[in-house]
Write a structure and sequence with these properties.
Radius of gyration: 40 Å
CATH topology of the largest domain: Helix Hairpins
Number of helices: 21
Number of strands: 2
Number of domains: 3
Keywords: Coiled coil, Viral release from host cell
Strand content: under 5%
Organism: Plesiomonas shigelloides
Order of helices and strands: EEHHHHHHHHHHHHHHHHHHHHH
InterPro entries: Phage_tape_meas
Helix content: over 70%
Structural class: mainly alpha
Strand order of the largest sheet: 1-2
CATH architecture of the largest domain: Orthogonal Bundle
CATH class of the largest domain: Mainly Alpha
Distance between the termini: 46 Å
Protein name: Phage tail tape measure protein
Largest sheet: 2 strands, antiparallel
Shape: elongated
């Protein structure tokens, strides 16, 4: 059939349509527009699905944390009950001791009276025999008989009273001893339940001794998970709204053709820009949920500074919001009035962004690492940056990646510090185990178990006491030594383990530290070179200060980083363009 304009369509071998008044180039643009729009819509839909999955996972995390909160409440209740039982046991023992002392006094009096009565009775018996033999007694013997009889008469009531007192004290002592035995049995049950709850909560010995700090960390983790859930839900809400709008426009897009579709083709890049803007707005909404700006002007100024900082440091704009959100959740820069100091917030953000580049982790991960060091481990910004320098340097000198050392510290750094290690000693111990071949999971568990086992003190189990005794240690003294010199104490324990009989070494390590970390601890004991190197560096700040900045500077010179900077700048301009209405 002829074209209305008299030109027949012809399909060439190359797949191009010729003979249509719409040029091939314009038709190609039209198809590209459709493809571009489809990719944008598909991407938005996939992003929504990812957020739904993330929300489900975060909800599970929140529920797990809430279960831990409940278990922690039970743990604290048991601790209070155990403390009350301990007090009652001490009182029962003191009362039993007092009754025992009174019993001994009464029994001694009873024996003394009985002895004197027996002596007087012996005199009477002898005189009675004399009377039977001679038929009479001398005057002196008669007086002696009368005195003996009088003595028995006077001592018998006192003897009876002493006997009654002794019996009473005996009954009280038996009663109190029984109460003490019942309390001890009850306390054994309470200790066993505490141990089970501690295992469920993954409490180390040092955690149990610093329950308030553990509770605080758990509460912060719960709050953090809830904030993350809110951010994810906000992003999903924003994406769903955008998807709904796109779907409503889909029918109109289907009706478009020719020049109209070509116009849409020209607008396809704007749709892609709009998605970036949507993502950024959702991310910044998450920031506003956890950061209390002084006023709208402070919020706008901080937002501009964040975007500029992301461009300068070569991280994505949403990456910067992830860092700032992590800082806000950790309370970084929050003042007494509840408002946030934006300067402190952005100082943190710049440090975290550089950490992300130096450690080769995402901006969000870097923000989480630094925020955890600040909040859970109680470090100042300067201390956290020194730890970052140390972690970077030790990873350069050992077969341990900085991000793995950081991950172990995020999980158990506070536990190790509670046991007496410094922050850098804790990181050094983690690095030594990772360099020795331990996985991140094993290293974290080993750090927790080492910290807990060496600070068990009075709560050490019978098997732990026996194992420690085999290498010459007492758990109570060991716990005290850990607070004075944790690193030195650990070395002493490792040296004694190394000297243990080879056939006993594995069993001793397993009993003290746990079967799951036997391999990691055995490697530390067999070869302490890595640990000594790590701890020596921890004691010499000149060996690591400025390490992370140098790493960042080196990576900043690479082509990949320069491209990232350009991309961040374009992203900043794009978001601003869409926000301004495309003008």
């Amino acid at each position: 059939m002829a074209d209305p304009h008299g030109v027949a369509p012809v399909l060439t071998g190359a797949g191009e349509i010729k003979g249509i008044r719409m040029t091939g180039k314009k038709y190609s643009v039209t198809l590209e527009a459709k493809d571009a729009l489809s990719r944008v819509f598909d991407s938005a839909g996939k992003a929504a699905e990812r957020y739904k999955t993330a929300i489900g996972q975060t909800r599970e995390q929140v529920q797990a944390l809430e279960r831990s909160q409940k278990l922690l409440g039970e743990y604290q209740g048991l601790q209070r009950s155990l403390a009350e039982s301990t007090t009652r046991l001490a009182e029962a023992r003191r009362a039993a001791d007092a009754q025992g002392a009174s019993l001994r006094i009464a029994a001694a009096e009873q024996r003394r009276y009985a002895k004197e009565i027996n002596q007087a009775q012996a005199v009477i018996d002898a005189l009675n025999r004399e009377l039977q033999q001679n038929g009479t007694l001398t005057a002196a013997q008669s007086r002696a008989m009368a005195q003996a009889q009088q003595k028995i008469a006077s001592l018998t009531p006192a003897h009876q009273k002493a006997a009654e007192a002794a019996a009473k004290h005996q009954r009280e002592t038996h009663k109190l001893s029984g109460e003490a035995a019942r309390l001890e049995k009850s306390m054994d049950g309470q200790r066993q339940r505490l141990a089970r709850l501690g295992g469920a909560l993954k409490l180390s010995g040092s955690d149990a001794n610093r329950l308030a700090a553990y509770q605080d960390r758990l509460q912060r983790a719960t709050d953090k998970a809830n904030h993350a859930l809110q951010r994810q839900e906000q992003r999903l809400k924003t994406l769903n709204a955008a998807n709904d709008k796109m779907q409503k426009n889909a029918e109109r897009r289907g009706a478009l053709s020719g020049d109209i579709m070509a116009t849409v083709a020209a607008g396809a890049p704007l749709v892609a820009l709009a998605k970036k803007s949507i993502d950024y707005e959702a991310s910044f909404a998450g920031v506003k949920k956890v950061v209390d700006f002084k006023d709208k002007a402070d919020e706008d100024a901080t937002r501009r500074r964040m975007m500029k900082l992301a461009s300068e440091l070569g991280i994505s704009q949403t990456g910067m919001t992830d860092i700032v959100a992590a800082a806000g959740e950790a309370g970084i820069g929050k003042k007494a009035d509840g408002k946030t100091d934006s300067n402190e917030l952005l100082e943190f953000a710049a440090s975290a962004a550089k950490m992300g580049v130096a450690y080769d982790v995402s901006s969000g991960e870097a923000g989480e690492i630094l925020a955890t060091w600040r909040s859970a481990m109680g470090l100042t910004q300067d201390q956290a940056m020194q730890l970052a320098d140390y972690t970077n340097q030790i990873s350069n000198e050992m077969k341990a990646r900085a991000k793995d050392v950081s991950a172990v510290m995020n999980r158990q750094g506070a536990t190790a510090m509670g046991a007496g290690f410094t922050d850098k000693q804790s990181a050094g111990l983690a690095a030594a185990m990772l360099a020795g071949g331990a996985t991140e999971e094993t290293a974290a568990t080993a750090l927790k178990n080492i910290s807990g086992a060496l600070t068990k003190g009075f709560s050490a189990t019978k098997s732990q006491r026996e194992a420690l005794a085999m290498i010459g240690f007492n758990p109570e003294q060991l716990a005290k030594d850990m607070q004075k010199d944790a690193a030195g104490t650990l070395f002493k324990v490792l040296e004694k383990l190394k000297k243990a009989k080879p056939e006993d070494q594995g069993a001793i390590i397993s009993q003290i530290f746990g079967e799951e970390v036997k391999g990691a601890v055995a490697k530390l004991a067999t070869n302490t070179t890595l640990l000594k190197k790590a701890l020596d560096m921890a004691a010499d700040s000149s060996a690591y200060l400025g390490s992370m900045q140098k790493e960042y500077d080196a990576r900043a010179q690479t082509r990949a980083h320069r491209i990232a900077q350009v991309s961040a700048k374009i992203e900043r301009i794009s978001i601003g363009y869409v926000a301004a209405g495309g003008r």
